[in-house]
Write a structure and sequence with these properties.
binds zinc ion, Dna Ligase, domain 1, 2 domains, Arc Repressor Mutant, subunit A, three-stranded mixed beta sheet, flat, single chain
Length: 161
């Protein structure tokens, strides 16, 4: 089933761009304020970058100079509570956030370079076989997972000139 979704990744991204946040927040019982909208726009524009609260704040204040760090912090927490963003921990001393794609039924994986700290997205689930085995052997229904792989990225593997 996941394989069908992968084919639509290009299209899913386009749909993410045009996502109706107002409708989405209304469904979750929240109002779309200018500040919430601004934070959502930044997360959407920087998808794949896994921004920290401070980084979101730095971007948001350019379009929304009256916003404070505390508001950004609360907004991101709200988004996490209503499950439109995912909180990530890449062991770099801060929490990082990304919008949850409505095309994803399971969380995508992250590759973390231990040399330069770069984080690479793995769009494919690739765990179907493992999930099936765990579900069978442990009588456990898997609903999601967060997988981090540590290693060396292709740029860091190249010998330096
Ligand atoms: Zn999965
Ligand atoms: Zn690297
Ligand atoms: Zn990610």
């Amino acid at each position: 089933m996941k394989k069908e979704i992968i084919l639509f990744i290009g299209g899913a991204y386009m749909r993410m761009k045009g996502i109706d946040f107002k409708e989405l927040l209304k469904q979750k019982g929240c109002k779309l304020t200018t500040q919430r909208r601004a934070v959502l726009d930044i997360l959407n524009e920087h998808s794949g970058e896994h921004l920290s609260t401070e980084e979101i704040y730095e971007y948001v204040r350019k379009t929304c100079p009256e916003i404070g760090l505390a508001t950004v912090y609360r907004t991101v927490q709200l988004f996490e509570e209503i499950k439109i963003v995912d909180k990530l921990n890449f062991d770099d001393g801060c929490s990082r956030y990304e919008l949850i794609s409505n095309e994803e039924d399971h969380h995508h994986h992250h590759l973390i370079c231990e040399n330069c700290g770069k984080v690479i997205e793995v769009e494919e689930d690739l765990l179907d076989g493992l999930e099936e085995q765990i579900e069978k052997n442990y009588i456990f229904k898997i609903t999601n997972h967060k997988v981090k792989f540590y290693g060396i990225c292709s740029r860091c593997m190249k010998p330096s000139e």
